[in-house]
Design goal:
Chain lengths: 277, 172
């Protein structure tokens, strides 16, 4: 017993190393399956608030760009107003419109923490469940798709960005409606994505727009990026192509969280089918 | 003694803040990020008990993890760093040296020793960090590239900070 004790105290550095390393690895592996511990992430109280403070400071640095993009968006929206259309009919009918019912609603949120240089990137938003955000909602910005909400607290939401190994969204070529799925490029470049599994019949052109298909969390036609190269390895039975993403993830400021009003209903219906099988 | 604790506490706070609010946000896009915060662990005094060193390494790693959203990753790398530090100091510094040379800084230990010390420990820490982070062999060349560039960047920043505090010590 005594010799054992002497042995342990002589090599105490090694045994301490083992204890602490195992503890660290347990924490790491447990959280690596992206089921994040609630107490160590940026959506939790203290650090969320610290990040919000920091963001306020950094916000001033990019005011100019934000202003420019808001001004552009204003101009665009003003163009859609009724007053900017020329009315060429003398009489107008008033009809109660029951054909259209609002399907998508948007919740504006501000990005208060962001990363683009990690192999798996996340964003933190300053709106949470109290503003109506729930897990699984899509996130877009004025230039295109951003990602999906994976965790919500009262006032913050954690978003798995498109720049993540596990991110995959349904997308299509804008001109000939060929469906594929958009993922991030392997080489960790925040400006590039890959459109996978497009049917071999499609004849994509470099410079063609890639937009969302409406099969996933996003409304149809939200831009993703432009096809930048057709020479991508892999594929086989289907085409893969490189896409230059339209969103600059390193400069995200404001985003819209998409609330699909009929999402639950669709999910329930599709879930029923699975249950019956 | 209390001065030693105060200096190290300030160093810890300053380095972690620089790491998570400045270096993490360097607009380098796809370019690697230096992990300067490990300088805190490198500069802890020689006489520190092993258990305290490991506990500090573990908690430093966890606090950086909290900001990077990677629970356990930096903690694991820092504990490896602490172990290598103990071995390295055991081999290169004699026990008698602990009394008159309290801290392994550039000004106390000289350029050659300090350079070997920082390069060895930085490389091992970064290697552990990037190996755990990617956790697979896919994209190996990108991981190695990021690892080397990050290491060079970190060592450079450490030398710069060593030189800044070198002057201040001589003046005293």
């Amino acid at each position: 017993m005594r010799t054992l004790w002497r042995f342990i105290s002589r090599y105490n550095a090694f045994f301490l190393f083992l204890i602490f390393e195992v503890a660290a690895l347990i924490i790491f592996v447990k959280n690596n399956s992206y089921q994040r511990a609630e107490f160590i992430n940026s959506a939790s109280g203290v650090i969320g608030r610290l990040d919000a403070e920091k963001d306020q400071l950094y916000g001033y640095l990019s005011l100019k760009e934000v202003n420019d993009s808001l001004a552009r968006e204003n101009a665009h929206l003003r163009g859609l107003l009724k007053t900017s259309y020329y009315i060429d009919t003398a009489a107008k009918h008033k009809v109660t419109d029951t054909t259209y019912k609002q399907q998508y609603e948007y919740i504006v949120a501000r990005v208060i923490n962001n990363s683009v240089s990690q192999p798996n990137n996340y964003l933190t938003l300053n709106k949470g469940s109290e503003q109506g955000i729930t897990k699984g909602m899509g996130v877009i910005c004025s230039k295109g798709i951003v990602g999906k909400v994976i965790y919500v607290s009262g006032h913050f939401a954690l978003v798995q960005s498109l720049l993540h190994k596990d991110s995959q969204f349904s997308a299509m070529l804008a001109d000939n409606k060929e469906i594929g799925s958009i993922t991030w490029n392997d080489d960790l470049d925040p400006h590039k994505g890959i459109l996978k599994d497009v049917s071999n019949n499609a004849q994509p052109k470099v410079g063609e727009w890639v937009v969302t298909s409406g099969y996933s969390l996003f409304p149809e036609g939200v831009p993703v990026g432009k096809v930048s190269s057709l020479h991508t390895k892999g594929g086989g039975y289907s085409l893969n192509m490189e896409v230059a993403l339209s969103v600059d993830f390193s400069k995200l400021e404001y985003v819209n969280v998409v609330d699909n009003k009929f999402g639950k209903e669709q999910e329930a219906l599709e879930g029923q089918k699975k249950k019956d099988e | 003694m209390s001065r030693l604790i105060l200096v190290n506490l300030l160093r810890f706070i300053a380095l972690v803040f620089i790491q998570v609010f400045l270096l993490k946000n360097l607009p380098l896009y796809n370019f690697p990020v230096p992990y300067l915060y490990i300088l805190f662990l490198l500069l802890l005094p020689f006489g520190i008990p092993n258990i305290l060193l490991f506990a500090l390494a573990f908690s430093t790693g966890l606090s950086v993890d909290a900001f990077y959203d990677t629970p356990g990753l930096h903690a694991a790398a820092c504990v490896i760093l602490a172990f290598v530090r103990i071995i390295f100091i055991n081999i290169t510094v004699s026990k008698e040296g602990f009394d008159n040379e309290p801290e392994p800084t550039l000004s106390v230990m000289g350029a050659r020793w300090f350079l070997t010390y920082t390069i060895t420990l930085t490389l091992l820490h970064h290697f552990a960090l990037f190996a755990l982070e990617s956790f697979s062999l896919s994209g190996l060349q990108y991981t190695i590239g990021r690892f080397l560039a990050s290491s060079i960047f970190t060592v450079l920043l450490m030398l710069i900070s060593g030189l800044i505090f070198f002057r201040r010590k001589e003046r005293k």
